[in-house]
Specification:
- By secondary structure, this protein is an all-alpha fold.
- The chain is globular.
- It contains eight helices and no strands.
- The protein folds into two domains: 63 residues, no CATH class; 97 residues, no CATH class.
């Protein structure tokens, strides 16, 4: 036996984060990135988030967001160029627009939380039960909820909110809107609710 876990604040915080990540199907993996990749990651992070990563010691969460956006962008590019229709498992990977702004990154991360938890739940449950369970867990961990476009106006997650986010068209519309808004701040072609955020 290794012994009792540490009660230091940083150790407790790390355990809580690891536990929450497991609930939402996020995995912590060690990656070995070369200097060229780290430099490019830092430049991409600056464009997407407004602040550059330190290439020798960077914020893992911000790097994960940027890597997620890059993987999603590359996936969509391969899908459109190569027509991956016959690839096994493709049906489990919806084409989500690549996030190209801080707000769309936040929306994509929220989608991943919702989808990860939904997919992790037992398949014997109805979609309605799964959506209720996901909403309860999101409320329990006080997960950020987009303040626009979602069915309920409450700050708390509802079953309808979860079901809404799981629809690819809805999430793509919001990511596209914020990508355009970020690229051209004068472009206000979205709805009034979107423009307010």
């Amino acid at each position: 036996m290794i012994g009792n876990p540490s009660n230091k604040d940083d150790a407790k915080c790390h355990r809580e984060r690891k536990s929450a990540n497991k609930v939402f199907s996020f995995q912590e993996k060690r990656l070995y990135l070369g200097r060229d990749t780290r430099q490019k990651l830092a430049l991409i992070a600056e464009q997407l988030t407004g602040s550059r990563l330190n290439i020798d010691k960077f914020d893992a969460e911000k790097a994960a967001d940027v890597i997620s956006a890059c993987v999603n962008h590359m996936f969509n590019d391969l899908l459109s160029r190569n027509g991956l229709d016959d690839v096994y498992g493709l049906e489990d990977c919806p084409a989500i627009e690549a996030a190209m702004s801080p707000k769309s990154l936040q929306i994509y991360t929220t989608y991943q939380l919702v989808k990860g938890r939904f997919d992790k739940l037992q398949t014997g449950e109805s979609d309605r039960e799964k959506c209720e369970s996901v909403a309860a867990k999101l409320n329990e961990v006080d997960a950020w909820k987009p303040p626009y476009g979602i069915p309920s106006k409450s700050k708390h997650w509802t079953r309808e909110d979860v079901a809404w986010i799981l629809h690819t068209e809805n999430i793509n519309e919001k990511i596209n809107f914020h990508n355009r808004k970020h690229a051209d701040p004068k472009d206000h072609s979205g709805t009034q609710a979107d423009i307010a955020t």
